[in-house]
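Reply to dn_fold:

You asked what the input looked like. This is it:
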Amino acid sequence: MRRRGILPTKRWSVPLDTLAGSVERPDAQSIRPARAGWGVRRYLLLVVLSSLLPLAAFAAYLSYDGSRAQLATIRTSVISTTRALAVAVDEHIRVRRAMLEELAKSPRLQDGDLIGFHAEMVGVSRLLQGPILTLVRPDATRVLFSDLPPDAVIPGSSQPDLVRRVFETGQPQLSDVFVSAVTREPIAVLAVPVKRDGRVIWSLQLGMRNQEFGQLLNEHLLPPGWLSGIVDRQGRFLARVPDNDRRVGHLASEGWRAAIQVRPDESWDRFASLEGDSVYNGHARAPETGYIVGIGVPASIIEAPLHRSLWRLLIGGCVVVALGTLIAVLVARRVTDGLRNVAAAAGQVPMGHCDAPRSTSVREIDQIAAALIESAQTILRRTNELNHLNETLEQRVASETADRLRAEAALRQAQKMEAIGQLTGGVAHDFNNLLQVICGSLENLRQRFSSDADTRLRRSIELAGQAAERAASLTQRLLAFSRQQPLAPEVIDPNRLVGDMSDLIRRSIGEMVAMETVLAAGVWRVFADPNQLESALLNLAVNARDAMPSGGKLTIETANTHLDEAYAASHEVAPGQYVGICVTDTGEGMSPEVIDRVFDPFFTTKPPGQGSGLGLSQVYGFVKQSQGHVKVYSELGAGTTVKIYLPRSTGPEFAEVSHEHQPGVARRC
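and this is what came back:
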């Protein structure tokens, strides 16, 4: 056995002459020095750096990728919020426009009762919590002002361009931000026409203060440090958070106005704010009014996590590299010392002996030293192993030969079964043709002889017909086994078929076996031969009855199922949607050896004379010929379940079982 751990310090001397004969021992001076190259220390440092630097680069990439993902999340959130605010701005102005249009239809205004209409203006102003309402003539002079008495002189005039557009179009108009001549504060004006007899006679205007729009911004609570604002079509602020009082009426930042010109409806850009800070800004345009809502996120807020991660990564990476370098230097020192000792000991091997070097606590180096010391013993051991290998080689060859013979036997068995199936199908076809002639002749004889004919003759004809029918049944079983039986498939309802033949199955299995059907709701239609399917279910029921000689329970279930690709690949069936029909009994069960052969033709566990061995093979052949799948699950003493999977029909879902088909009635030959 090879020695491990601390080696003995005594001197070992292994004469090589005893193993390999006389060996020329070179002098120490004849040994060529090793070529100059890197030492272990450099290689260890290279390993440390090549391991840590890619990890650091990958961590940096993950940090950067996380930052980009966070930026994308913020962008989506900002754009969604600006859209919502833009819709809120439109809704805010739409409500006021509707109120102005209703006020413009006031009977007092139509009758020229300006004093009474002034009271209505004041009421609407109070209802809207302070906006100024103005009635304007076509020349832009003001007739009434909600904050002044009806007979007061109103200074200044309304915006001529706004008044002109109202009188020319006869439609409501919305102004940009301007400084009111009366209140001396930035406002936006909504104007609607006042018509009489289809003609515009006045313009009714509503001044909207920045506090209204500022309230819309404040209702959406943004994180600390974020900016938000509403600008008109010229890029002037209607409201801004923060610094609302100082920024309202002034132009937005140059970067934002440039972004609006390039992408007026919606954008996400980075530029400098009015405060000089770099921000990521997203905006959306209100569809009806054209006002633009923007939200700015300081770049420092978004990029701060990335900067922190990179600094932490840089500091941590430097610390890790330093520690790795220190550890590599210490390990390299121990390894190089041990290797020098081993090299010195290896130089003594050609001399026929080897002084054991000191232990280095490095397992590999100690193993090398032990291997040098025991080189002679290793040669002997390898020789013995070679002899043993020669002895076991024959056994392995014999085992491989036996495995190949078993595989060839399985192949021959499969070929034999295929040949039997082809032969059986051919014989069954020819035999069926002969039976057609026999059955036809017997039918002619049956019709020719009247009821008063010889009783024995009529009995013989009947017996011959019954034998011919049994022969036809055997022919159908042989065709089913060879998968060559003629099928008459149609779209059928499995639930209906099982329900219709329940009475037939109950009569067939007797009173000692309880029967239960579990029919799932919404079971798909299948495309199969109903007579063959009934025959298969009846075969399974009779087999289940025979497996329960002392009585038991038989359960027939239907359900929709799906065979995935993994199951289909391992069971030679196409993946897809199937209808499963399960026949379960509480009988004796089967062993794994019997399950492996359960579908083989002429295989039966019943006593001689009680089974042909073609029942389950007929079921197997019918299911496979119908592009389906059949599986048996059984345990000794725990019963048996046979699952038939028939593919779901792609035909019309309303198709039903043909009326010509009667459950339980076999077709005559």
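The CA atoms of residues 3 and 324 lie 32 Å apart.
Hope that clears it up.
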